[in-house]
Amino acid sequence: MAMTLQTTRRPAAARPRRQQILPDRLLPYGMIGPAVFVAFAIAIIPLCYALWLSLQDWYMLRRPTPVWGGLVNYRTLLSDTALWASFGRTWIWTIGTVVVEVALALPIALLLNRESAVARTASAVILLPWVTPFIVLGFGWRFLLDSGVGPIHALLHVLGLAGDSSILNDPVGAFAMIIFISGWKGTPFLVIAILAALKSIPDELYEAAEVDGAGPVQRFVHVTLPEIWNTIVTVGLVLGILAFYSFDLPWIMTKGGPQDATTLVGIAMYKAVFLDLRPAYAAAISVVMLVLLFIASLITLRLRRRH
Amino acid sequence: MRHRSPTRELALDATTIVVIFLLLVPILWVFVASVRPETDITGGGLIPTRFTFEHYAAILAKKPFLIALKNSLIVGIAVAVVTTALAMPAAYALSRFAFGGRNFFALLILGTQMLPSLAVLVPLVVIIRQIGLTNTLTALIFTHLALGMPIAVWMLKGYIDAIPKELEEAALIDGCGRLGAMWRIVVPLIRPAIIAVGTFAFVLSWGEYLMALALILKSDVKTLPLALQGLFDPYSFSWGQVMAGGTIIALPAILLFLIFRRQLVGGLLAGGVKG
C-alpha cells in the first residue's frame, strides 16, 4: 500500500534528470564502485605496499624513513633460525587445528543429522564457540586453566596432564592445549558445513547400498564419506588458512610463551613491527607467509575428488 | 530420512545433549563465573549456589570500561551502517546488470573475504601511521569494513537474485529510476537480510582484537576487547570482573547470531568467514 502511494506521488521529472547525471551504462560501476574501492584500499593496495616495503631497509631506531634495500630483508630472513622455528610451529599448529576440527566435527555432524527437536536445537547452539570473540575465549580458557581457580586445571591435574602450576606454563603442554582450543573454536563451522553436505545426499544412494547388503560401516565408507569429502577438504582449507594466520588466541593466552613455545609466525611478525620496530622485515615475513600459504593451498586442493 | 526405533532416537538425543554440553561448557563457565561472588569463584566448588551482579556493577563503574563501551558502540554502528550502504548497491549491480569487468569485481570482493587481517596488518599499520590516523576510531572503522563487507555483498546478491525482475520492471514503467526501483521494490523485500548483514558487521567489529591492538594505544579511543585486557593487567584483578566484561562482549554477538542464524548460515558457508 504505502509503496504504491509513494510511487504515484513521485514527480515525473526526476527520472530524466537522474539519467543525465549517470547514464544506465555507467550506473553499475557507480553502484559497485564504493565497495570495490574499499576492497582495493584494504586488500590490494596493502598487499602491493607490503611487497614494496619488504624491499626496503628500515630499522626505525636507526632511520625514520625507509631506503631501498633490495633483498636485504629476505637474506636476513633466510638465516633467522628463530623465525624458521616459528614457521615449523605454525605448520604443526595449522595441521593440528584442522585435525582436531575434523575429528570433533565429523562424529558430531553424524549425530546431528537427524530430524529430532534436540538435534535441530543443538545445530543452532553449537555455533557458540564459533561466534564468541577470541578475546572472550582466550580469557575464559585462561580462567579455566588457572592453577588457583580453574576447574579444567583441576581435571588435568587429576589426570596427571598438569602439575601444580597451570598447563599453560609448560611449553609442550601449552602448545598442545592451545591447538586443541583453536580446533574447538573452529569445530562448529565444520559441523554446519558437513551437516549441509549430509542433508544433500540422496536417500536412494543409501537404499541401493542396503540392497547390495552393505552394513553401517560400509555405507559410511562407500556412500557418506565420498559424498562429504570435498566439503571437508574445502572447508578444512578455509579453516587451515585461518589457523595459519592465527594471532589472537596464542597472543591473548600466552603472549607466544612460555619460551617461544606458542610463538607462531603471526606473533613473530607482530613482534618484528611493534617490539623490534622493523616494519620492512615484518613485511618480508608477511610476503613469505603468503607465498607458502598459496603453495600449500594448491597442494590441498589436489585432495579434492573429481566427479 | 530412514526410520529408526524411538528408543534409539532417544539414546541419540541424550548423547547429543551430553556432547553439546561438553562442547559449550567452557563458554557457559564464563557466564556462570560472572554472576558468582569472588569467594565462590576461588573456593566455592563447581556448583554455583549464590548469585550476584557485583562484578557487573564494579566494571560499569570504571570510567575506562565505559569509554570503551561507548567507543565500541560508535565503531560497531558505523561499521554496520557503512557496510550495508556499500554492500547493497554493489550486490544489486552484480545481480541485475551485465557489465564489463563484472566477474573481476565479484572475485575481487569475495577474495577480500579470504584474506585474513593478519596478512595485511603490517602494510595497513604503516600506511595508517603515515597518514596520521593511528589512535583514531576512523582508522579502526575503515579497517573493520573488511570484516563483513564481502560476505554482505555475497549474501545480499543471493537474496536479490531470488526476486523476480518483473517487479522492478513494473516500477520502471511507472516512472521510477533504476535506483528508485531498487530502493522501493528490492530493499523492502529483503529487509530481514539487510538487517542480518548489518548485525553481522556490527558483531564482527564488536569483538575485533588484532586491528584495535595494532592501531589504538591511547585509553580514550580503546574498544571493549582492549578494555577487557586492561582489567586483567594490574597485579590484583578479579576473575569475576574479567568474566563479566567477557560476557558483555560475548552476549550481543551470541544473541544476534542466534536471532539471524537462518539468514547468516548460508552466507557463511558460501564464502568462508574470518573468525
Supply database-style keywords.
heterodimer; A: mainly alpha; MetI-like fold; two-stranded antiparallel ribbon; 2 strands; globular; disordered N terminus; B: mainly alpha; 14 helices
Folded structure, characterized:
The complex is a heterodimer of chains A (307) and B (275). Chain A is built from 15 helices and 2 strands. The model of chain A is unreliable at 1-21 (pLDDT under 50). By secondary structure, chain A is mostly helical. Chain A has a single domain, classed as MetI-like (MetI-like fold, Orthogonal Bundle), CATH 1.10.3720. In chain A, helix 3 packs across helix 15 and helix 4 (72-78) packs across helix 15. Chain A starts with a helix and ends in a 6-residue tail after the last helix. Chain A has helices at 2-9, 14-21, 27-53, 72-78, 81-112, 117-125, 128-131, 134-144, 151-159, 171-199, 203-211, 216-244, 248-254, 265-274, 279-301, and strands at 56-57, 67-68. Chain B has one domain (55-271): Orthogonal Bundle (MetI-like fold), CATH 1.10.3720.10. In chain B, 77% of the residues lie in helices and 0% in strands. Chain B has 14 helices and no strands. Chains A and B meet through helix 1, helix 2, helix 3, helix 5 and helix 6 of A and helix 1, helix 4, helix 5, helix 6 and helix 7 of B.
